[in-house]
Amino acid sequence: MRTVFKSQLSKTLVTLLSLPLIFTACRKDVTTQPTPAETPKSSSRLSTDAIGVTGPKGVCYVEVNNNDIRNVGSYKLSTGQQLFDIAIIFAANINYDTSTQKAVLYFNPQVSNVLNNKATYIQTLQAKGIKVLLSILGNHQGAGISNFPNQAAAQAFAQQLSDAVNTYGLDGIDFDDEYADYGTNGTGQPNSSSFVYLVSALRQLMPNKIISFYFYGPAASRLSYNGVTVGSKVNYSWNAVYGTYSVPNVPGLAKSNLGPAAIDIQSTSSSTAASLATRTVSNAYGIYLYYNLPNTDVHTYLSSISNALYGKSTTYNP
């Protein structure tokens, strides 16, 4: 099974109790099957076109431990529109408080810097029309989006997320079911209700914000419970395996809200990236996923993609 490393450095995540953690960050291949999806009837649906241009939205993860998220706003199409539509702060964590046995939202120092200086990092991008989301993933402590023991626990964590969105002026939350190490600290294993309860509660708290799902981990096979689907609550979902094309199997999401193409800017070849972009347009999907935008100028690489997506090259204005 092919493994893709998600970061070149350790994510330097600190636990809530200041206990040392040693870990590696890796991505394992996921098998998904394309399925037809119905257009969901929800007031939370947003425009599916890219900013000011017809074509797929560009969604870009930035490892803020190492790179400046403002770089997302430095790239434009040759006709002046922003290349990226959504920037994702990678990443906040789900820690586990062993004394209260509850999941706790945690920000490492680099994430805290971005959030606490929202005028500098977040509002700068929003002023360009770019939406800014916060990615949420586990931290090797046993807590994750797939093992809340009951609905009340899921709702309590959803409240923490909603409070963060409101406090820092964010445009939404992105869920990534990795690094939880389910079972650690006596926590439960993934269950069928947890993720559905979580996104349902968060959608109620944030009716007009973006909720997205990085299609990976135990949550990817637990998308329906008691007649409620994750696809009816989230806005978007995208493939999690860089350098590949795989349609996320999220019933309830239309093609315009799905991203089957995913690339790592620092490791996926430009020819592969361009081929995946061409395929995205040919198959009429609405998202193209970028990961690992560096601080250096990569507009030539990005032009190979934007030419395929929009028929326009990319420019760089740091």
Automatic annotation (TrEMBL):
Q: Name one GO biological process term.
A: carbohydrate metabolic process
Tell me the first and last residues of the signal peptide: 1-27
Arranged from A to Z, the UniProt key words for this protein are:
Glycosidase, Hydrolase, Signal
What positions does the domain GH18 occupy?
A: 56-312
Matching entries from SUPFAM superfamilies are given as: (Trans)glycosidases
One Gene Ontology molecular-function label: hydrolase activity, hydrolyzing O-glycosyl compounds
Establish whether keyword Flavoprotein is in the entry: no
Query: Which PROSITE patterns does the UniProt entry name for this protein?
Result: GH18_1, GH18_2, PROKAR_LIPOPROTEIN
What is one Pfam family matched by this protein? Glyco_hydro_18
Family assignment from sequence similarity? Belongs to the glycosyl hydrolase 18 family.
Name under which the protein is recorded: Chitinase
Q: What is the lineage of its organism?
A: Bacteria, Pseudomonadati, Bacteroidota, Sphingobacteriia, Sphingobacteriales
